[in-house]
Amino acid sequence: MHTRRAGATGLLVECADGAEVEAWRAELWRRREQGELAAAEIVPGARTVLLDGLTDPEQTAGLLAGWAPPPAAGTTAGPLVEIIVRYDGVDLAAVAEGWSVPVSEAVERISGTELRVAFCGFAPGFAYMTGLPWPVPRLATPRPRVPAGSVALAGEYAGIYPTASPGGWRLVGSTDAVLFDIERDPPALLAPGTRVRLVSE
Q: Which InterPro entries does the entry mention (predicted)?
């Protein structure tokens, strides 16, 4: 783990991989809840965790140097959210072919795996979920428009498009779940650390 300044009140924690990110995210959230860390924002990414709103980033960096978070596998499990999915995506057959399994088994693999939200980004409510051990290549050419509610895979991640937007992920299904609603508290259905199951309709 390494740290570096990010603006006047920020500190960026650089990690080796997603597992270390999750370990630090959980540890930093825990210490903030216990009053040991005063950070307005703790934002995980693919290989980083951003702390913002710090009064003294250098002092915080010194504190982090003395902390040793437990492995991600030892962190407290987040809440479980089950999302009903219609496995009707236009790329589902191609994903199954890439995995060398029938379409029915591809659906079982996805729906039977408990995923975890690693971080959020790209669009409000878009969660990058990990847990599928079978990587999926992105499309060579992104689609100009992916419908809202599309369930998709790319690389090591699964995700659901909260709104219609361009995208290069493989579409395996669709859902009516509302991923982001400004009138809801919190607005995003999925937050880092949340466990997710993409249950077949």
A: CT_C_D, Cyclophilin-like_dom_sf, PxpB
For residue 37, give the amino acid letter. Answer: L
Residue 182, SS3?
coil
- Burial of 45-77, coded b for 16+ CB within 10 Å and e otherwise, reads bbebbbbbebeebeebbeebeeeebeebeebee
Helix, coil or strand: residue 32: helix
Query: Which of 13-22, 53-62, 158-167, 171-180 is predicted with the least confidence, judged by mean pLDDT?
Result: 13-22
Give the H/E segment covering residue 30: helix 18-33
Please tell me what DSSP assigns to residue 36: S
Per-residue DSSP letter, 100: T
pLDDT higher than 60, residue 22: yes
Query: What pTM value is reported for the model?
Result: 0.86
Instruction: Check if the beta carbon of residue 119 is closer than 8 Å to that of residue 134.
Output: no
Note the pLDDT tens digit of each residue in 110-132.
Answer: 999 999 999 999 899 999 999 99
Hey, what domains does the chain have and what are their CATH numbers?
A: 2-66 (3.30.1360.40), 80-200 (2.40.100.10)
